[in-house]
Specification:
There is one protein chain. About 45% of the residues lie in helices and about 10% in strands. With about 190 residues, it is α/β, with parallel strands linked by helices. α3 links the parallel β3 and β4. The radius of gyration is 17 Å and the shape is globular.
Length: about 190
C-alpha cells in the first residue's frame, strides 16, 4: 500500500448538481481544509482535481468523505456503491446523506466508526442542521495532526476488516443466488 499522504478524500466531481455538495466544497475551502485532502470538483486547480483514480486516492487517504445524491430524500434507506467501495478498500468514512443511513447500515450487519468519528449527525432530521454537523465533524478530524489521525484510524482496523469480510461474504452469496436464478426453472 502507498504511504498515507492526506487526511481525507472526497469524490465530489459533480458537486454543482446539489446544494449540499457545493456547500461542502465551500466549507472545506473557507476553513483551509482543501489542502489536507484529495477533492474532485471536475476541474484541476491549486487544491482540487478534475479526475481522481479511486483506488490510488483511497489508499493515499485516511478517511473518505462520501457525498451521496439522496441527501434530502425521505424515502427508504439505501447504500450506494460509494459505501460498498469503502468496505472493499477498508476505508472509514463520513457520509453526507439522508438521516438514518448509518443506522440502516448497522441494521444490515455492518459496523460504523464511533467513537473515533462522531456519528450523531445521522440522527438529525433537519437537512441544514445535519449538513452543519457533518461539516463540523470533518473539520474536527481533519484539523488533527496527521500522526494523531493515523493513530485514531488504526483503532478502527477491526471495524473495517469486519465490514470488508461481510461485504465479500454478501457479494458471494448474491452471486450464488443470481446463478441459481438463471440456471434453475422457477
Amino acid at each position: 500500500m502507498e504511504t498515507i499522504k492526506k487526511h481525507y478524500c472526497c469524490f465530489n466531481k459533480n458537486y454543482k448538481e446539489a446544494a449540499e455538495r457545493k456547500i461542502l466544497v465551500k466549507y472545506l475551502e473557507t476553513n483551509s481544509l482543501l489542502s489536507k485532502g484529495y477533492v474532485s470538483t471536475g476541474k484541476d486547480s491549486e487544491l482540487t482535481f478534475n479526475e481522481l483514480d479511486i483506488e490510488t486516492t483511497l489508499n493515499k487517504s485516511l478517511i473518505n468523505i462520501v457525498p451521496e445524491g439522496n441527501f434530502r430524500s425521505r424515502d427508504s434507506q439505501f447504500l450506494s456503491e460509494k459505501i460498498y467501495r469503502c468496505f472493499l478498500f477498508k476505508k472509514p468514512f463520513i457520509i453526507l446523506s439522508r438521516q438514518h443511513d448509518l443506522s440502516y447500515m448497522k441494521e444490515i450487519g455492518y459496523k460504523t466508526f464511533e467513537p473515533v468519528i462522531n456519528e450523531n449527525y445521522d440522527e438529525i432530521y433537519d437537512h441544514k442542521s445535519r449538513l452543519i454537523a457533518v461539516c463540523k465533524e470533518i473539520k474536527r478530524l481533519v484539523s488533527k495532526p496527521i500522526e494523531e489521525l493515523i493513530k485514531d484510524i488504526n483503532k478502527l482496523e477491526s471495524v473495517y476488516e469486519y465490514n470488508y469480510k461481510l461485504y465479500i461474504a454478501n457479494k458471494e452469496h448474491q452471486k450464488r443466488k443470481f446463478y441459481d436464478r438463471i440456471t434453475k426453472n422457477y
